[in-house]
Amino acid sequence: MSGGPEADLAHHGHVSLWGGEVGVWLVTENFGPADLAQATVRLAFSEPMAGGRELPPSCLWSGDRVLSCRTGALPAVGSVGELALDLRTAGLPDELTVEVSTAWQGGTADGNPVNDRHRVLVLATGDPYVF
After folding, report:
1. Residues 65-123 pLDDT 10s
2. What is the mean pLDDT of the chain?
3. Rounded to an integer, what distance in angstroms lies between the CA atom of residue 116 and that of residue 9?
C-alpha cells in the first residue's frame, strides 16, 4: 500500500430481467477511512442495451453495453449512495451478465477491492438476482 489516502468502497444491490427490461438497484458504501468527493461505478452488460430511456443525470453510456455512473460524495464510514435504473436490452435475451465495478475513486487506494467487483448472471424471470 502507498502512503496516500485509502477508502474501501463496496457495491451491492440486485438486477432483474424480464421481457427485455432490466432493473438495477445499486448501493455504494464507503467504509473509509478517507472521505470521497466522488467515485464512478461501471456497469458492463453482456448484451447490447437499447437507448431511449432517460438516465439519471449522474450516468452516461460509453457504448451500447457499458454504463458509468457517479456516486456523489461518500464521506467515510458507512455513507451510502443509491442508484435505481430502468433500462432496456436491444433484443429479448433469455439471460445476461452484468459486471459491477469501481472505475474511479478519486485517487484513493482500496485495500479491499473484492467487495466492489461483482459478476451477476441474470435470467429473464423477473426475479431479483442479488449481489
Report:
1. 999 999 999 999 877 789 999 999 999 999 999 999 999 998 899 989 899 999 999 99
2. 93
3. 6
Spatial distance between the Cα atoms of 123 and 108, rounded to a whole number of angstroms:
35
| 9, 105 contact by CB (below 8 A) | yes
The set of cell numbers assigned to 91 is: 433484443
Q: What are phi and psi of 40, to 5 degrees?
A: -125, 130
Q: Which three cell numbers, joined as nine digits, stand for 75?
A: 464521506
* C-alpha cell read off for 6: 485509502
Residue type, 62: S
C-alpha cell at 29: 458504501
Q: Which residues pair with 43 in a beta bridge?
A: 67, 100
With cell 437507448, the residue in question is 51
Q: How far apart are CA 114 and CA 129, in angstroms?
A: 18
**DSSP summary character for residue 126:** S
- Confidence (pTM): 0.93
What residue type is assigned to position 109 of the chain?
A
